[in-house]
Specification:
60s Ribosomal Protein L30, Chain: A, 2 domains, 6 helices
């Protein structure tokens, strides 16, 4: 090792080395801050991606609910079409935000790799400085390069942070819009359900008074249940006279209710045919399903003949597949042979 001395004997190297050590410590401090900033920013981006995924799931759920509601009410679809289009626009914007975040994550990953390489290089230089106790011209050049690279990375990091802040603000605004859209949809659905509920209650109350004394007519949930024997003979879908009398009462009640229900409420009276689990095969019907459907159609056709609008009626056959009583007894089979009436939305 070579020693340098001047004529006065003053050794300036310790002070010079101390100054350079202090400078290196400052550089190390800033590099440590840089690494920590990368770490917390990575965690923040992971959280944002999770929130965006949850938001995408919520958007899909909203689209499904809107599709189902479109079938149940034409008027509600007209009012909500504009809101649905806006939701789709928001989903596209969110997808763009997610792409921007993905690109930002890729840039940060590259920057982290550069920072690690720089840190390794800095450690090597520190070892050289401690062993040689001097700074060569080559070391100074490397230090200048490191400083320039650090400044460049800091500038890029500032740009990325600005992009992420902008994306976060846009994300919050879109969440607020979607939350407001969900509230509007819920209020609209609740209003539609409440409109028909009051008339359904009146319909049930009227039929209860008229049919209260009959043992072969029961109420199950939101449906009136008539035993099939009241309308049809065994294995037949031809209406009996005693059944027609009951349908006359029902038709009169439906027509009176129709005059009270506003025209904008899309309601129907659904007629469901059910059979027992005893298979049927005769010249007219090859299965219980066909028999139950024909019985429901016969009831609907008679109600139409009595003046009930066809557009307010629906016929459905369930065969033996929706039993009230699952026991394999004659009493259970008698309960399962039935015609049900339900006032519901279209």
């Amino acid at each position: 090792m070579r020693h340098f001395r001047n004529s006065s004997g003053y050794n300036f190297w310790p002070s010079f080395v101390d100054a350079m050590s202090t400078l290196l410590i400052v550089v190390l401090f800033f590099l440590l801050l840089f690494v920590l900033a990368h770490y917390f920013m990575g965690r923040n981006l992971d959280t944002k991606n999770t929130e965006i995924d949850l938001l995408n799931i919520r958007l899909k759920d909203l689209a499904t609910e809107l599709s189902a509601e479109r079938k149940s009410t034409a008027d509600l679809t007209i009012r909500l079409n504009a809101q649905l289009a806006e939701t789709e626009k928001l989903a596209g914007e969110l997808a763009g935000v997610k792409d921007e975040n993905t690109r930002a994550l890729a840039q940060i990953a590259l920057m982290e790799q550069d920072a690690k390489a720089l840190k390794l290089r800095k450690n090597e230089l520190e070892k050289d400085l401690k062993s040689e106790r001097k700074i060569s011209q080559d070391a100074k050049a490397h230090l200048a390069v490191l400083t320039a690279q650090t400044e460049k990375l800091t500038a890029e990091l500032a740009k990325i942070r600005a992009v992420l802040d902008q994306a976060e603000r846009k994300d919050k605004a879109q969440k607020a819009q979607i939350a407001d859209l969900g509230k509007k949809l819920n209020r609209a659905l609740a209003a539609k359900a409440g409109e028909l509920a009051s008339y359904r209650s009146e319909f049930f109350g009227t039929l209860r008074k008229v049919l209260a004394d009959r043992d072969d007519i029961t109420i199950v949930g939101d449906r009136f249940v008539f035993q099939s024997e009241l309308f049809f003979k065994s294995g037949s879908a031809a209406l009996e006279e005693k059944g027609k009398k009951q349908l006359n009462v029902l038709a009169k009640t439906v027509k009176e209710l129709q005059r009270k229900i506003p025209k904008n409420i899309q309601w129907v009276l659904r007629v469901d045919g059910h059979t027992d689990n005893v298979p049927i095969r005769n010249e007219l019907y090859s299965s219980n399903w066909q028999l139950s459907a024909n019985r429901a159609i016969a009831v609907v056709q008679y109600l139409i003949d009595q003046g009930v609008p066809a557009r307010r009626l629906v016929a459905a056959g369930f065969g033996e597949h929706q039993p009230i009583d699952r026991k394999n007894t004659e009493s259970a089979r008698r309960k399962n042979r039935r015609i049900e009436f339900k006032l519901t939305e279209k």
